[in-house]
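ENTRY TYPE: paired fold submission
RECORD: A
CONTENT: sequence, then structure tokens
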Amino acid sequence: MQKRVGGAVRPLVGRMAEQDALTRAISRLAEGQGGGLFLSGDPGIGKSRLLTDLTWRASMRGLTVFSGRSAEFERDLPFGVFVDALDDYLADLQPGELEALGRAHVTQLAAVFPSLADHATDQSQESSSPSVRFRIYRAMRELFDVLAKDNSLVLALDDLHWADRASIELMDHLLRHPPRGRVLIAAAYRPRQLAPQLSNALLLANTQWYFEVVDVAPLTLTETAELLEIGADDPRLTELFEASRGNPFYAEALSEVATEARYLPGVFTEGSAPPAVLAALRSELYRLPDIVRKAAGAASVLGDPFTPDLVAEVAELDVPTAVAALDELVRQDVVRVAAGGAQFGFRHPLVRSVTYQDTESVWRFAAHGRAAAALRARRSPVLLYAHHLERSAQPGDHEAAEVLSAAARSVLSTAPDTSAGWLQTALRLLPMGESYNEQRIELLSSLATASSAIGQSSRSRDLMHEVLDLLPKDSDRRLDIVFRLSKVERGLGRANEARALVLRELENAGEGNREGRVGALLETAIINLAEGEVEQACQWAEDALELSSGTGLVDRLHSAMGAALIMATAPGRASSRLIDEVLAVTPAIDAASDEELSGHFSQVVSAITSVMWVERLDDSVRHYTRATSLARQSTHRDSIMAIMIAAGEAYLWQGALDECEAAAEDMLEAAMLTDSQEQRLVAWSHLCAISMWRGDVAEALRFGRLALGGEDPATSGRSRSAGYYSAAALLLKGEPAEARRWMMAAIGDESMASVAVLMRPPVLEILVRIELALGDVDAAEAWARRIDPQIGEILPGRWGMRHLAHAQVLIARERFEEAARLGREGAELCASVGMRLYEGRCRLEAGIALGELGKHDEARVEFGAAKDLFAARGAKRLHEDVISAQRQLGAKMPRRRGAGDGLLALTAREREVAELISQGRTNKQVAEHLFVSPKTVEAHLSRIFNKLNVSSRSGLTALVYAARETKD
């Protein structure tokens, strides 16, 4: 523990290994390398003193330093340790200084830092969805990078073991995604009190980041003597050393009261001091006058830092008396002056803890009430006094329940764990009686949302059941709750329970509640489809569509869902009539107000997904964007994950791999904060598909195995698509037999009964490629013929996939004319609905067929278009396939006569590149010589090879030398 001499901090005693770690961290930071330094040790061992030394060293070297501390009794203050470190600094920033962060990040940060409240928008309090918290974490990371732009930064966080849940999740994120700039994150914590999430995060921290965990060791006997400034022969030394076990804080506390008494070594238990140390601290307090102890008790209730006026109100003293009491506490070194003399704080958290615990419980209860009233009277943010209210309000206090409910709503997006605690207290305080049922329903619904956000899906489910019990049987709100419950049950892997719940509601709906019955029928169909029970799903969807009628918004939503489900589940049922039923919902959604959509939100999301299924991708993405914004501003926050999943699928169909990857990463980060395995499976499946399209085989297989639960290709439910894309990745790897095994496991059997009809075209196209790779052209053609021809009348993209499959079979049979025609037609069909990667693949096959026909110019056009499409979307492997096909085409083209004439076909820059290559230079050396990028040189070479009909650098070199000889 630090001692103050003349107002200064005395130099450290001992700690050679620890000081070396501080030196390494500061030196690396001064050289521009960020990292993490974590100090682990028992209470009082000296972690805080080491952090103080670290920040002092950094300040002396001119580095930017921010310091914050978690508090034992304020663990419900969201992001408390980060707010303590940064809020005052952010309050002093000018508006222009925040511009570097960008408006979106500032909006997210406004939900965290009170000083940025003026920058808040409605979306800053948008949702309890983990995906929203993930965006806040990214904004915080960006903040650190911006703050460190001009100068290296030290963020020192003390007592991390007392951090609130939001701070824990943020630190977890930073350990896995550390700041990119010159930022040193230094933190101190007690290892056995640290949250398990942070303990795991420390073990799994980003290995590319400079990172060190230092176990702070006890002092030796000699160092203890130096700390206490007593001689080695002093009879008290051995006693104090044994009792303190080398813990500097304990040694100092004991030395203050050590006279004739003998202190036996206490039993060290994490989270509390040895009995002898507690006795010493209490002795220190007990010898203070009653008024001074009362002021100390009030200060312990308020927490660090505190001001004299607030101490006066909480202790029920006049201000002069409170000031005099604080002066005495400063003289006795119980509290210390902070913040330039305007505020005070306890010298150590253990001193505050002992003070707080030793106040009488009844007095402490009332003191929290006075603290809440005092802070509220000063118009302090509700977050600053909600925890006082929580500790002082009594059941039946309707006003306190409303304040806590408001506070809970304000942090639902940033700290759902805190929100859940306050909502639980508000429920306890709410008066009993039917007149308060409506408020109870709202509190239970919000608590269910918060519980889901912190990964307590089972708790969320139980709370929604309580809501159903309170809602009247004829309430319009029942259906929405049932749909939410169904999603939660499915996320918990309880599809049968979800189905039973919906069917029970179907029975309760009665014949008069047509809308409720239709909704229940459709939800049952969706459950069956997700479980691979395609035929049963179709039957429920048909019943729903038959019952649905009318032109109102709800009828349009239901009709769209029913029609899409029928097309997705019934082979040969696709028709223009069903397409019209789906597409009629688009103008209905566009015309509806936010309030109307919010009233039927689950159906809205499902209807938008129906629009995506029928290939109106631009409309679906536009509607998903609106739905996301609406969900963040309403009570439908737990639907955001469903929107993210569906939007990610739309991006995948479009070939927008970057957008799909961003959605999948958000989804995965969010899923890791919950207990929903389904969300993780979907995120991994999307990442598997993205990696496959990019040609990153290893990553595709890694994500595929995560989604499928190991090396076994068996699939079910949401992970089924991971089986398809894993098989495609295995094909890219050159293992068609293994790819076929995985694909057959994914589709169940050759009947494909468990595969949705609308998913069959892309699945069958993969099977065609697998069979062709195995050399079985007949089998490939059999799979291609199974793509429903009727789809072509109404779904151009899937018809384009059919053309793609047949074009590959025709090329294998050397029927190039037909293959070229189908490839071109398929490209146009896929382009018409925005399926750009499939368009590119069609053009690639068309180019190959045209090349075989000797139509080289036409082939080059198709190859060029395909290459541009793949390059724009980051499909690297496909881009390389086009380049390979172009080179093969060049090798087949007739040679021009006269090497010199051939070089004249090149541009001046291309001739420069050709000359340098002929000298034996690498692409990188050519790039450095011409001051261009290696990729530019590669592009020049590709064009040179095409123009000169060569396929290698050696062939180009031969032409260049031949041209010289001709010239000579």
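RECORD: B
CONTENT: sequence, then structure tokens
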Amino acid sequence: MTDPSRALDDRDEPALLRDQFRQLLRYRSLLVVGVAIGLFGGGYLALSGEDVYTATGEVQVRSATADPFATGASADKGINIGSERQTAVSDTVGTLAAGTLLKAGDDVTAYELLDGLQVTNPPNTLTLRFAYTGDTPEEARSRAEALANAYLAHRRARTEDSIRNMSDGYRAQLDPLEEKRDLLEDQIGVGSADDVSSARANIIVSISELSRKISELQALDTTPGYLDKKPVAPTEPTGAGLPLLLGLGGVVGLALGLLLSWVRLVFDPAVRSTHELVRSLGAPLLGALPRERAARGSLLAIGRSGSRLAEEYRAVAFRLAYDPAFAESRRLLVAAPRGDNRAASAAAVNLAAAFAEMGRDVLLVEADLRSPSLVRGLGPAAHEVRPPRWAAEEGRGGWPTGGRSNVDVPGSGAFALIPGATVDNVPRALTSTPVGRIVAEADRPGSVVIVLAPPVLSYADAVALVDRVEGVMVVCDPREVHRGDLERIREIIGASGGRVLGALLHPGRGRLRRTERRPRPARRSGGDGSGPPAAGAGASGLTGDPAQTLALRHVTRPPVRR
């Protein structure tokens, strides 16, 4: 038989991701709190922030050239656009722009001016985009234009300074050559010589070359660039509006809620998924009860037509009937981990009714001797009958020889009940000889013994019965039981020589109360089990459906022993 925990580990990755996402959605309150915080933050930023305006201008940068219309002339010759962008946001440009604005009546420092400036360069262009953010549209326009013009003025002055320095350097070389040329001309007038004439010719060539260079520098076009797009006053404030900020706040809040849910999930000791329950308990999941309750004053759900709860109990009984571990002994111990034992009581009663419906001779033993409540929970369905002769011979007045009851299941049959009774020494009563003889009744063909024990972790009563009733079914609420509790139950039962056959999940008490508050549709006569059964219903509880009759005839066959 395949290990149930290993079977769950073999699931595909998308199924595991869906399971983890469903686990995060369990903490809806944290998700709601995160989204609420995000929406509040987005709304606060949108309503409390001041409106700002951004004006944009574009400057096309060009280099100095002698003839811009000549063939092969390039405007990007010697331009490093990254360096130009750094120059545009420098203190020098800010100081020039602040001086220009001061003359216009706008008193602003260079630091404050550069604080609202952003210069970008569109890809594969020689264009600098000046974007200035100000408090008013006119302020943004004027300061963006002043900064662009200051950059162009600074670049022009830098180019002219370079030309002036180079011209001065050429003139510094030219003056000694002219003096030497005049000296050689004087020597030629006194007496001609070929060497003097040759030196004079060389000097004249050098003077001509330097003069040509100076002339080319003076003829350069020093235009630093053009203001292609002049800044204009914006008509609407810049920045995200209220809808966008609310949307961003909602997304950020949802992410915050998921983070809080994940942290809560990590430190949550409760069972987070069916996979963890099966792995912690070391047994398969037999079934999960729907959010439905039996009729008031009775634990029985089987016998009500159209009850999803009854069908789930029948499915669990069918699965146990064909489980080789249960079919070999036909003994079942039903217990909860800790706390309220009402869900385990309902499970034991309805499983007994389901086995009786299948034609088995069922004996239900209430081993909860501290707070017995099955007779009170079953109500008028339980009728006291005479105990067996061997029980009368063992003694009178003490559990379990105090008496037996016959529980009638509407439309399904009946099963025997040994109700619990308050005794002074519970461990001695549970390990007594009469209890062993009661459990041994499962050895008869077609018999099933179901024992209802107190919570496993609250008392040791269930452990005292494991050596006689090897198969154990744990009834728990997945949102209330802890992983450590399930692991401890598995260790306790395994060490006592028993085996956990599976787990039965039931909804919490709070969810059942919410289900009770919902309006219920009007029931037909005989639908709740209090009236006469439907026409065609016999002792087996069938409604006359041939398919259902054949199915029950099939499942009521005794399981094949291996």
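NOTES ON RECORD B: The chain has three domains: 22-49+240-266, 53-67+74-229, 276-516. The chain has a mean pLDDT of 77.
STATUS: closed
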